[in-house]
Amino acid sequence: MPERHTVGDVDLRRVEHFLAVVDEGTVTAAADRIRLAQPALSRQLFQLERELGIRLFDRTRGRLSLTPAGRDFVPVARELVALAERTQAAARTLAEGVLRRLVLAAPTATLMELVAPFLGTLGEEDPLVLVREVSPSRAYSALGTGADLAISPAPVTGRLAHRRLGAVLLRVYVSPDHPWSRRPTRRVELAELVEEPLILLPQDNTSRVELDLAVAEAGLAYDRVEECAVARVIQAHAAAGRGVGVVTDLPRFGARSLTIADPRGAGEAALHIVLNAAWDPAHFAAEAIESMAGRIGSFLATVDGAIR
């Protein structure tokens, strides 16, 4: 027997029967379409009119025609049925843990250099990923305001589920005419970097914090520093020979890229920042979100200069 749904005192099955009569033009044709006996359908229509408190049809000489109230009710009825169908579909999705739409919060550089290229690899069967630009320090708090997944270089604390996505190198950018551009090792030491006129991100930026910490621990100090809040502008200035830039972005504008030797590591260790993904473990689609985070991590491993 069909499941019955109501909105207030109105049985949605009767609303569907009403629309069948409107669409087919007669009770006989509608009864054939929905496979219900004609007398039973007529009783359903009378019952709907009692529930609504309005007369939907004029019944003259065995024929039905919509009353003015009935005509006004038709779009309302269609909206009710469509809403019920969407509600049932959403409930099934929640019950199955299926994710149709995912909101991802991350800093600008992560969205532009990692997330956007990753989205180009998704298929039609994957969730629609919408993004929200946040600072590294506020990425995880976005999970409490509608985001499903957050990516940030900040450490994950509290009860959040999380995983390490990988690490991204700090990149030194110079102009094609700079002597370092011809260096075979594509690598610079901290001691020589601090002697250059540098263009750096602001001090609260995660990559800048990592660089400042390494410089301090090595007992070094910057000679000259200009600050700029936009990584692409820093690259553009470096490409034009206005200074040496340090950002995590991929190469642009013809600037030459080098890595920074990490004196705290061994061998070929280079300065980098670690990207973490976090999500609410109680999310109805926590497994799907974790799977998406894993795919982003796998994609990150293919990005030039990334470290697993």
In terms of structural class, how would the helical and strand content be classed? Answer: alpha/beta
CATH class of the largest domain: Alpha Beta
Query: Radius of gyration over alpha carbons?
Result: 31 Å
CATH topology of the largest domain: D-Maltodextrin-Binding Protein, domain 2
> What's the shape?
rod-shaped
Order of helices and strands: EEHHHEEHEHEEEEEHEHEHEEEHE
The poorly predicted ranges are none
Mean pLDDT: 87
Put simply, the count of helices is 9
Structurally, the number of domains stands at 3
What separation lies between the terminal Cα atoms?
56 Å
The CATH architecture of the largest domain can be named as 3-Layer(aba) Sandwich
Q: Let me know the CATH homologous superfamily of the largest domain.
A: Periplasmic binding protein-like II
> Beta-strand percentage?
15-25%
Please report the total strand number as a whole number: 16
Query: What fraction, in percent, of the residue positions are helical?
Result: 25-40%
Order the strands across the largest sheet as they lie in space: 6-5-7-15-8-16
List keywords for this structure.
308 residues, six-stranded mixed beta sheet, 3 domains, D-Maltodextrin-Binding Protein, domain 2, Arc Repressor Mutant, subunit A, alpha/beta, 9 helices
Quickly describe the structure.
This protein has 308 residues and is α/β, with parallel strands linked by helices. Helix content is 38%, strand content 23%.
Strand-helix topology:
Blueprint: E1 6-7, E2 10-11, H1 12-24, H2 27-34, H3 38-52, E3 57-60, E4 63-66, H4 68-96, E5 101-106, H5 108-119, E6 128-133, E7 149-152, E8 161-169, E9 171-174, E10 187-188, H6 190-193, E11 197-200, H7 206-217, E12 224-227, H8 231-239, E13 244-247, E14 256-260, E15 272-279, H9 286-300, E16 306-307
Parallel strand pairs: 5-6, 5-7, 10-14, 11-12, 11-13
Antiparallel strand pairs: 1-2, 3-4, 7-15, 8-15, 8-16, 9-13, 9-14
Helix pairs in contact: 1-2, 1-3, 1-4
